[in-house]
Amino acid sequence: MPLYEYKAYDKNGKNLSGLIDAASKAVAYERLKSQKVFPYKLTGENAKSRSFNFNLKQQLAFSLLQLASLLKAGLPLVGALDALSLQLENERLKRSYIRAKTSVMEGSTFAKALSSDKIFPGLLVYMVEAGESIGALDSILEDYAKKLDREMEFGKKVTAALIYPSIILLVCAVLVFFIITYVAPTIIEIFEGFKQGLPLATKILLFTGNTLRKYFYLWIALIAAAVFTYIKIVPLNAKEKFKMNLPLVGWIIKYTMFAGWASTLAMLHRGGVSLTKALDASAEVISFKTFQEKFKSLSKRIEKGESLSAAMRGQNIFPPLMIQMIETGEKTAQLDRMLDVNAEFYEKEIERKLSIFISLLEPAMILILGAVVTFVVVSILLPIFEINKMIK
Which of 107, 252, 284, 337 is least enclosed by beta carbons within 10 angstroms? Predict the structure, then answer.
């Protein structure tokens, strides 16, 4: 059923506004009147609420925790969705949950209702389907919400760790560019009037500054063309290979994939999903297509009778420590726990490596900036020494 926005008065004359699902405007009007609400404006759903929201992931996680709590309190799914939609402030999420409630009332499963709205991730839909089949929907929703929360916290830590050196690097680059292109050439032009040959370092500085200044727009165009070529023309497998071979970046990408895959697989398997289906679903969290295929192939090897650890050994992408821990989990019937331990280990490793990298990056940037400034100063001072010699 479609949604309608309404503005109305209650029996006390207070202004109200909100959403209501109904088959038509007339039905919506009658439903509101039966609730002692008297609408003076009733319109179809406004598309503006579908705009992008930076906090949507966080709000989705919180709403799922609320829904899980309502279900644990004994409310039926329709009642819980109705209560949740009344509490939500985010209009986009509110509409999505109202649509889901309407679909459930019409006989659809909750998983199918969520799958029709792009706001809900595919992994959530898969987990809800598993939760409905085993009668543990509240636990599944809670687990998924906690997973989202962990991902956001981890992302915040990584971002916070990279913000400071990124700002320093940007400021240094702008400062050096300004000195080379405007300050140094202006000073050096004074020395050219003495008809004295300039030192090599000074010529290099002058050439660099003039080139950057005169052909600034050409450099911008070349950079833009290179970025466009990389994004639109370079094959996906070549881009992924390039990223994986970057120092530190490739390492972080790999470990992030392992951590996300392990935590997702543990959550699905613990929720009652069969190992093969859980492997297929958890492979969806891998953003690199070349790696995703290798993760997806694990379920096929499991179907042939191999253990998970043996299937992982056959792919040559998993760290030996990870395979050993999973093998231990299989032997002790604690696979879910070992997967969680793996995820936590790799998340902590990423934080540790980033911390070391940043502690080394700051002095390295200072040394590079010092070297550039020293070169600029020497390039300016050398002509002065030459002029002093000429005068003497």
Answer: 107
